[in-house]
Design a protein that fits this description.
mainly alpha, 141 residues, Four Helix Bundle (Hemerythrin (Met), subunit A)
Length: 141
């Protein structure tokens, strides 16, 4: 049973989406990928717009902390930690239909896995940009 209290806890809300895997997009260029796939999220939530809004609010509240955690790992030179944190951001973005943000986080995760901290650091601005775009798109949904 999902907790629908006014102050959602991100792990319990996102946990509801983990039970239903998001569709795996075909490989495309980032510029061709949609910023926000709201229809996909609503489909996974069986059309429950109220729950979708709770999930989106929890995501928007939590993701800035996750991005800051990734920046802290970059600053400390923790490449493996960067890969893990980028993986968390990728999963969160996929859960809310943030396809472009998911794609950026994926490239950062792969770079971290291969030990390329410079690439992870170089994509931080892209991560911020795609989060801003997703946040704006969610506001208008």
């Amino acid at each position: 049973m999902l907790d629908r209290s006014p102050e959602p806890r991100l792990p319990s809300v996102i946990g509801a989406l983990r039970d239903v895997s998001p569709p795996v997009p075909s490989p495309t260029a980032e510029s061709e990928t949609v910023v926000f796939d709201c229809a996909s999220v609503l489909s996974r939530l069986e059309g429950d717009n109220e729950l979708a809004q709770v999930v989106f609010a929890a995501f928007l509240e939590d993701l800035p902390r996750q991005i800051q955690a990734l920046q802290d790992l970059v600053d400390s030179g923790d490449t493996a930690g960067c890969a893990r944190q980028a993986h968390s951001i990728r999963g969160a973005a996929a859960s809310v239909g943030g396809e472009r943000l998911r794609g950026v986080a994926l490239t950062m995760e792969e770079a971290g896995d291969s030990g390329n901290l410079q690439f992870v650091a170089a994509r931080m601005n892209d991560l911020h940009l795609e989060f801003s775009r997703l946040r704006d798109a969610m506001k208008f949904s």
